[in-house]
Design brief:
Elements: H1 2-20, E1 33-36, E2 41-45, E3 50-59, E4 63-70, E5 73-79, E6 87-94, E7 104-113, E8 118-128, E9 133-136, E10 144-146, E11 151-154, E12 158-160, E13 165-168, E14 173-176, E15 188-190, E16 195-199, E17 206-210, E18 240-243, E19 257-260, E20 266-271, E21 281-289, E22 294-297, E23 304-321, E24 326-342, E25 348-355, E26 359-363, E27 375-385, E28 389-393, E29 399-409, H2 428-434, E30 443-451, H3 454-463, E31 467-469, H4 490-494
Parallel strand pairs: 2-8, 9-11, 10-13, 11-14, 12-15, 13-16, 14-17, 15-18, 16-21, 17-21, 18-22, 21-23, 22-23, 23-24, 24-25, 24-26, 25-27, 26-28, 27-29, 29-30, 30-31
Antiparallel strand pairs: 1-3, 3-6, 4-5, 4-7, 7-8, 19-20
Amino acid sequence: MKKPKIILVQFAILLGIVIGCDTTEKPLPNNPIEVNGVPDVLEVQVYESIGPLTIGVFGKDFLSSFRILKNGEEFEVWNLNQAKLKYFYSTFTYAPSPLEIGEDVLFEFEARDMNGDMAKSEMKLTVSDLPNTIRVSSDISTDQTWESGKTYILSEQVSVLPSATLTIQKGVIVKVDAEKEGEAIPFLVIERGAKIMANGTQEEPIIFTSIFDKIQPGQIKSSFLPQAPDLYTNNAKGGIVILGNAKGSFASNFTEVSLKGEDGAEYGLIYGGNDGQDNSGVLNYVSIRNVGPLTLAAVGSGTQVDKVEVFQGGQIGIRVLGGAVNLENIMVSDTGTGLSIDQGWNGTLENFYLGNCISSIIVGGPKGNYYGGNHHINKGSIFVSGGGGILNFEENSNTDLSEIYFEFTPSLDSGDYPVGADSWEPAVVNYWINLVPKKYMPKVSELEVYSYDPFTSSEFLEWSERVTIMSNIGINSVGVDPEPFKKWSIIHENL
């Protein structure tokens, strides 16, 4: 009985030798891949972040890649071919865009191994508005109130129609959703015969801003401001447009005309008339940020514009077209042109600040036979840093300037001289002298100038003997009174 056992042992040994001598490459075992840590569904409010989520990937056949797709497009990719990994961990975080509010966002977490096997986990993300947020997309034909403690989002151009009044209570936040390409830019338009009653307070100003601004009711200064718009292009979108029935000096002596944008496009919005005391309402303690401009077209003297600022408004901060509206306690900063005046404005600007603008004030002359008398620009400060424009007046622009302080200082990067220059000679000189023939210069009184460049100071003296050259900063006796801007103004906070 022992002999068969010997034969079996010998056969087993022989079989082992044969198997051991097989040198052909064997395929890797076809093991499954696992993707763990991905929730099926997540619901978040805008401005909240997801994560960090730890995503674990396991593949015994060595991982070759891991990628994340967002709505079918690659969001993030890892190439693992050379790593010889069976385990891979990734931390996932995501901050939803306000443009994703109300939409389902699909994330796919996809892993592959050396065998070409693939495993995928999906997560559906739903983004919702914050509480007390109201989206406005329809014109306002009857009286309406936007209430304190709430945020209103303009997702379309919204017009307040004739005979209707829009009341905006203190502390209201208005955000402009103007980032979707190819769609009409949302404006708040106050048509002729309509009114806006926007009465903020020092403690609770009314704030117009971009949808990307995280500010919420109860706040004055946001924890996050969007990137400043390009001052040379009008990519700060939105803003407020008030259309009035007052006079303007229009081409061909028309009484009323259609509003045009800076690109020449017409919006189909009509302004102009014969009522110099026309009343379009009130803007009081209103801060406009990251959207713009504020356009006042043929607005009458019955309209109150007091304690208003425009910060990072894009190409223009405030645009005044004809009319007789008076502006008081105004701040504009970080825009292309701070104040643009045209079409025979016959009002007053008093107590103002213009800073960090490429051109501070541009004044166009009348376009028709109506001149309307002089407008007055009084009691303000204009700051120019590192070169830029100040004033540009066209023929018969009819401007009176008084009690204004001009300050010229080098910019933070003043080591970079203007093209063609070997020292600092700000472009303001070119704007002030060369672009404005002296016979069109405005009437001036009590102007004070400080400049780090003596050449600029001498040009001011040549222009008018009513100019005082200051020997240092901080000793001026004219200029803006900052008191009305305290607490509520973001520009005042940044000074």
